[in-house]
Design goal:
alpha/beta, about 525 residues, four-stranded antiparallel sheet, 16 strands
Length: about 525
């Protein structure tokens, strides 16, 4: 059974980018529907972000642009970096400081405190302890969750987007094949009621996050499995830079979890040192900036030290800092370590790299527009070229709030003159009836995660990538045999999307002969 839903703007994703877009639109009275597959809208990658967000001040514009380009190995889209440097400060102050009152850490004088992370030339990062993303996420949600202030905002939780709706693919008449290619909404799987909602909209905003959860070891929310990437690709959107997956150098090492707890780069920014199994500091052998080298350099250095020592991890030592200051500055990390039987004020933290951020994604311009009419992409799912081959620390949250705002500006300039698409001209979703074996789905997901980690990870080779391509092809063949006629389930939708995105990463990796940024191909030097 399909139920129609009509809205002015359909936003898929409830992290910083999607919520900023919603806020800007709702202020103008636009009818906005925010969709998340999670039962709680706060469960996003934004929630897990620890370190901070850049607040660039007067006289910093040129330096910030240079730092973004330097971290990317000169591969970033300079126009995107210039736009971020020019617009982001005012947008951050308006949205996060002025409107939603995010509680960033302040000094005794009431002024914001600033810190520095890897590859930054100055202190320009504001933060809330070591839970900056959580502070931003909760502040945005609390502000938007006010029916009196924003009566046109609707949240749909436990709804999984299945596919974007394009009249050329989903029209009821043959003549619709020849219409201008555009996106007019999405099919949504209502997890609670077991039905599909046909949601049509004047504009659709992809804000679904990255693909980190496709890897066995990652720092992301489990929903970061590439749903937006796969849906956009199926609809005909251009993709870019999909080989550039950034691995965070320091996540807490244990044997019991695939989602690894992030140990913020801010610890290294505050003086933490990386030491190997023998207790030797090693980063100065790999880069003149030592612990503050770009993330790809640090990640490969850690892997190299682990291989040399045949060790499961290396260690991040910050025990030389004052214990009370550490507990106050990093309360979340301190508590997590303590729960695991380790006091970071007394002992070094065991760390390993893990998949963290997707630099590539759905190609979008500097207003967030894709090549498909009415479809925007913002945040981690998008690729403006801002990050190029490697993301500068603490630009991710800033990118989300900036392009969420810019996309909303662009939508507002068109929405009055944009007609709604008649939902009667869009086919209803045909529900399958064949029961699926969720145990097999889970096994296929694990195969996908292990293959991505082993063959499409920090260090890649043509042999590994070709092995991965063959395995993903087999997985895709198996899933395609039963997907069309199967009873829908969130995990099945995620598996289908994950396999498609894995292919994108492998294909992009095989096309790129050059090791650069966070992409490292053995034998390409």
């Amino acid at each position: 059974m399909t139920q129609d839903l009509q809205t002015d703007v359909l936003i898929l994703g409830s992290g910083i980018a999607g919520l900023t877009t919603a806020l800007k639109l709702a202020e103008s009275g636009v009818d906005v529907t925010i969709v998340t597959r999670e039962t709680r809208p706060e469960v996003t990658n934004t929630l897990w972000a620890q370190g901070g967000i850049i607040l660039s001040g007067e006289g910093d514009e040129a330096l910030l642009i240079d730092d973004i380009l330097k971290a990317s190995g000169g591969t970033s889209n300079r126009l995107a970096a210039e736009l971020l440097a020019r617009r982001s400060g005012a947008i951050l102050k308006e949205v996060l400081l002025g409107k939603v009152k995010t509680p960033f850490t302040q000094g005794e004088d009431g002024e914001l405190l600033f810190t520095r992370e890897a590859a930054h030339s100055r202190d320009r990062i504001i933060y809330n302890g070591d839970m900056t993303g959580k502070a931003i996420q909760i502040a945005l949600l609390r502000h938007l969750d006010d029916a009196v202030r924003y009566p046109t905002v609707r949240f749909l939780t436990a709804h999984t987007a299945i596919d974007l709706i394009t009249p050329t693919h989903h029209g009821v008449e043959m003549s619709q094949r020849y219409e201008e290619h555009q996106v007019v909404g999405a099919y949504l799987w209502d997890q609670r009621e077991g039905r599909v909602r046909k949601a049509t909209a004047k504009f659709t905003i992809l804000a679904t996050g990255g693909i980190g959860a496709l890897y066995l070891h990652h720092s992301n929310a489990e929903g970061a499995r590439g749903d937006g990437h796969a849906m956009a690709r199926r609809a005909g959107a251009f993709m870019g830079d999909m080989e550039f997956v950034q691995f965070h150098p320091t996540t807490f090492y244990n044997r019991s979890s695939h989602r690894r707890f992030l140990v913020s780069e801010a610890l290294r920014g505050e003086g933490g040192r990386l030491v190997n199994a023998a207790g030797e500091a090693f980063m100065s052998r790999y880069h003149p900036d030592a612990e503050l080298a770009p993330r790809d350099v640090v990640s490969r250095a850690i892997v190299d030290e682990m291989i040399r020592a045949k060790a499961d991890c290396v260690y991040l030592d910050i025990t030389h800092k004052d214990a009370d200051w550490l507990r106050q500055r990093f309360p979340t990390i301190y508590a997590h370590c303590l729960e695991s039987g380790l006091d970071l004020t007394q002992s070094p933290i065991p760390v390993v790299p893990a998949a963290h951020y997707t630099c590539g994604g759905v190609r979008s311009d500097l207003q967030g527009r894709t090549n498909l009419k009415r479809l925007y992409a913002v945040g981690e799912v998008a690729c403006t070229g801002l990050h190029g081959a490697n993301r500068l620390a603490s630009t991710s949250l800033l990118e989300g709030v900036t392009w969420g705002y810019l996309a909303a500006e662009d939508v507002l300039s068109q929405i009055v003159d944009t007609p709604a698409y008649d939902p009667r001209r869009v086919r209803d979703w045909e529900l399958g009836t064949e029961e699926i074996d969720l145990t097999l789905v889970s096994q296929d997901q694990m195969t996908l995660k292990q293959s991505m980690w082993n063959y499409v990870g920090i260090i890649r080779s043509k042999n590994r990538l070709n092995r991965a391509r063959a395995m993903f092809r087999e997985l895709q063949d198996e899933v395609s045999k039963f997907y069309k006629h199967a009873v829908l389930h969130d995990e099945l939708i995620g598996l289908r999307n994950g396999i498609e995105v894995a292919h994108m990463v492998v294909d992009a990796s095989l096309r790129n002969p050059e090791s650069i940024g966070c992409f490292y191909l053995q034998g390409s030097e």
